[in-house]
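Any chance you could type out some protein's one-letter sequence along with its backbone structure tokens so I can compare the two?
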Amino acid sequence: MNRSAIDLWVGVLVAMGLAALLFLALKVGNLASISTSEVYQVQAKFANIGGLKVRAPIKSAGVVVGRVVGVHFDNESYEAVVTLSIDGSFKFPRDTSAKILTSGLLGEQYVGLEAGGDATMLKTGDRVKLTQSAVVLENLISQFMFSKAQEGGNSKESK
């Protein structure tokens, strides 16, 4: 094999390696799931979204059915408004509930949808009315510490 053929094969392998690295970077950043299928967007209001970010997955029964496309603050209700982009092949009833959940103990946060029983389906522009905010680990720890402090104070008074 001559020198130019070896150089050509090395170049091809380097290009394939760079393409694989690009693919992995997009996959880690949740950018590789760009879909050309039809979607519909709905909104949901939450009192607390925790660490939910744009492009976070939307899951139902463990299956990714969409992505979060926007998060903003409503100055009138003082709540976070999350815009959900759901793949058009997944239809959800109008009385569907949305929760902000965490993968594992300290994993990424995502929106979990639980289908209701209404005959009318959600469509673009609708709002998910039944929502449950994120559970913030710091709040749970502070409540636990406060309750332990209260128990300690009460036991000293009773002696």
